Amino acid sequence: MKKHPKIFLVHAAAVAIPPIVSSFRAHWPEAGTANLLDDSLMPDLAADGRLTDTMIGRFVDMGRYCVKAGADAILFTCSAFGPAIDECRRQVGIPVLKPNEALYDQLVAKDGAVSLLATFPPSLPSMLAEIAACAKAKGTRVQVESHLVDGALAALQENRPDEHNRLIAELAARQGACDVIAFAQFSMAQAAPLAATRTTKPILTTPDSAIARLKTLLA
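-> structure tokens emitted (219 positions)
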């Protein structure tokens, strides 16, 4: 691994930036990071209702830009664009990580029930399919029940993080019939400390897991 690798963090929403930056400071301060934000991605996906060829091409273009800018690896932080990130990975010659890959490995490590909480509805279909595929490959039986935290993302976008965190924590507290709770969005990580005071269930978030995986990929 290079002593100071350069990691490009590609975001579809500004609210995803603070959690991953904070996690890098805590767990890999030596790494150089650069943030690339296109906040038109989520509105365009919502308007189209599906991942179009044009949208997938945009992800490939972003990946190629990161390579030209000297990236040693790319981490995408929005979970709604899985197939587009897959195509980007096929087209560039450096490690490309989906936001939730490391989290998925934890979720499918053994049989169990997962409550998947999300604040951005379009992310759920691809995430559920990806978790199912990972469990099948691992040979484990994982039952996933997804839940939308209504109003949480809007609260965060309106600079009301306390409300965002409260809504997530309240929904986490109601997850009784599961073995583990997983947060779908990077931006939800900030709610984990409060949520942990409302439930005894383990809570998994994506930023720390992603950084550990990046260290492995660049070893």
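The CA atoms of residues 85 and 177 lie 32 Å apart.
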